[in-house]
Structures are given as structure tokens and as C-alpha cells.
Amino acid sequence: MQSRHTRHSEPITKVYEFKEDISINSVEKNGKLPKSTILAWGIVIPLLIIANIIFGGIYMIARAKFQKDKRMPPDYSDLSVCKRKFNAPPLLIISSDGFRDSYLDQNITPAIQRLINYGTHSKFMIPTFPSKTFPNHYSIATGLYPAWHGIVDNHFYDPQFKAFFKKSTNQSGWFLGEPIWKTAQKAGLKSGVFFWPGSEAMGKLPSLWMKYNSSVPFTYRVDTLIKWLKLPDDERPSLIQAYFEEPDLAGHMSGPNSDTVILSHMLLSGIKFIICD
């Protein structure tokens, strides 16, 4: 049995080594590569050439963009170009609902670009969850997450109240936390808020405000903001917040890159240009 086992195991080892030796010796002997190897290189080399062209193009584009960015105004506040009209400059916060960051790259918002060039800006924004209008705007106002300030969606049901929350709700029980306009008032400052979500809640009203009405023209809203800014020092709000429904409404109706959205961008950009000047 032992001799049979030995005789059986030897051919197995020899066959394995024999195949390896054949593959090597055949190349050395003939001086030629197998057809499969030639075919593989015939595929790999063109792919490497294509990849080199693609990555070379990406590099050239990135380099051109980098050189362009170096020529742009620095990313810090340049107050020398701003007109100094206030002893105590007010804080003006304007919200354009549904404004995607990609809109800044479409050359349709020159006034916003001017604010970026001569002011300061962030590269991106991480919204709260859910990324809806009311939860995020009230988070901006309070500095709290939706779970803490109570506004967890634009529409939702609260089992404790046994009622549905609506955008038109002004009962203070829905709105938890302290909005920034109330904090300003506690510090002896005035606040003016135009249609900001949560600004109509009873007990949390700003010094100056208006009941929400979507039919109020944007031009009237801007005229009101300018009127507030031109008030005497002892009457002017130290904090002004304004909310605009566009381009969100246009985006929902016609798509995020529609002509309607572009027109709303141009309108809002013109509005901001008036305010900046």
C-alpha cells in the first residue's frame, strides 16, 4: 500500500511542475509571447492612453480653475467699499427659499456675487433634518434642532396637542425655544421681521412685523426693508430678517433649471442690489 501511495503522489507533483516549466520554457525557447498575452496588452495599452488623455484634461481644467480663483477677490470682508451710514450697523438676514448652491455658478445672480466678492460667505451649508422650509428657518432663528424647537416639518401631527401643525399657525405652544428677534429685544434692541417662519407666534413677536401674505409684491417688501433701514438711529431695528418664497415656488412648478427660476433669480438679485446700494 505504501509503494502504491508513493507512486501515485509523484506524478501529481510532476504534472504541476511540468506545466509551469512548459509555460516558461516555451517563451524562452520560441522568443514569442503567447497570443493571450499579446491580446491582453492590446487591450490594456489603448485603455492607458485613453485614461491618460482623460486625467490630463481634468488636470488642465482644474489648473485653469485654480488660476482663475487666484485672480478673484480674497474671501474676507472688504469694508472699504461699503458705504458707512450707520453708527451701529444693523444685521440684515435675507432668505431666498430653495436657492441651490449651483445657482451661483450660472452667472444670473450678479448682486449676490457682489456680496460674496466684497463681503464674506460660506462654501456650503448643512441643513437640519428634515431639510424643509419651516424646520430650517426656525432653526436659524433659535439655534436649535427641530426636535428641540418643535417644528419638525412644514405639516405634521402632534399627538400631545391632538392637532395638525399648519404654516399659518400662530399659537406659541408650537414654537419652542427663543428666536433671535426676541433675544435682541431682551437686550434692549429693536427687531424687524418680514414673513420669517415663526415670527407671527403669539408671545414671540418682533418689534416690527407683518402678517404673512404671499400676494404681497417683492418690491413692496424691499421698499419696507429700505424704509426700516432709513429710520432714525433710535427707531431703526438692529436686526432685520426677510423671507422670500422664490426660487422655491418656481422650482416646484417648472423645475429647478427652468426659465421661471432664472427670472426669479434675476428679480431677487436685483432686489439685493438695491439693498446693497
TrEMBL record:
This is Ectonucleotide pyrophosphatase/phosphodiesterase family member 1. Signal peptide: none annotated. The keyword Transferase does not apply. CDD domains: Enpp (cd16018). Keywords: Membrane, Transmembrane, Transmembrane helix. It comes from the Eukaryota. Pfam families: Phosphodiest. InterPro entries: Alkaline_phosphatase_core_sf (IPR017850), Phosphodiest/P_Trfase (IPR002591). One of its GO terms (molecular function) is hydrolase activity. The chain crosses the membrane at residues 38-62.
